[in-house]
Structure prediction request, 311 residues.
Amino acid sequence: MTVTTAPPAPTQSRPARNGSKAPDPIAELAAAHDLTLSGARPSLPSYIGQLWDRRHFVTAYATARMHAQYSQASLGQVWHLVTPLLNAAVYYFIFGLVMHASHGVPNYLPFLITGVFIWDFIGSCVNASTRAVQSNLGLVRALHFPRASLPLSTVVQLFQQLLVTMGALIVLLLIFGQTPSLNWLLVLPTLFLMASFCAGCAMIMARIGAKSPDVSQLMPFVLRTWMYASGVMWSIDAMLRTDHLPHWVSTALKTNPAAVYIDLMRFALIDTYKANQLPHHVWLIALGWALVVGVGGFVFFWKAEEEYGRG
Prediction:
């Protein structure tokens, strides 16, 4: 005679006598086989390691996007150079000739072109990064990779374009009578600090843009205001010598990160700037912005790593 026994009831987690929950057998099994929650945020050191392992993807993706940007245009990649030159021509007509912003600013054309080229990089990094995650949702939802790759690839793409325009800027400065000197080597640390600052800005704006896509519609207005406050078309020092502004306004203008990096680049390349001793605290301000925004922006973006692509 066969005796049929009922299968044992499934084991359920019960609270322990001390009030704490008993170990979850599913969680213990997953831990035993090194299984982790899909999409969970890794630790910060692990995240940095994953990002470093994908550095070739970041540069390759940035290069591909740069080549594709003007692939349908007849002039192709020449537009990377033509666009800031056209902006400089418009600003020279309006601010240099009509509004006389060139008064009191020697070598105004080199002054203006340098400011336009550097601002074009800073403003483009901030503006383009607001859509870095949102415009790549298909990639984000299909593949597992550190999402910081997206805003960083945007900065790398724009930095590659900046290097092209910097070559043209050097040629233009030579045409306008600027003389090469050892000061030109200061371009390298200035580019590094500025790129670090822009990378932090890009990651901050990428997280904000992923959460609130409408922010990309507001950025042109914000960036236009920031540009006017950065001394791109006019000299902040000349204005402060003639206008008696409140102390906090003067301090804000002098420590404005975009104005600081533009001033460092002008000091490195333009003769009239090189003739004046640049205060040492300007380099400290530039370093401070690069560290605070660069590191802070990275941590700020990493904090929401598991949220990108949801919804």
Remarks:
- Confidence is low (pLDDT under 50) at residues 1-16.
- The chain is about 65% helix and 0% strand.
- Residues 187 and 268 are 6 Å apart (CA to CA).
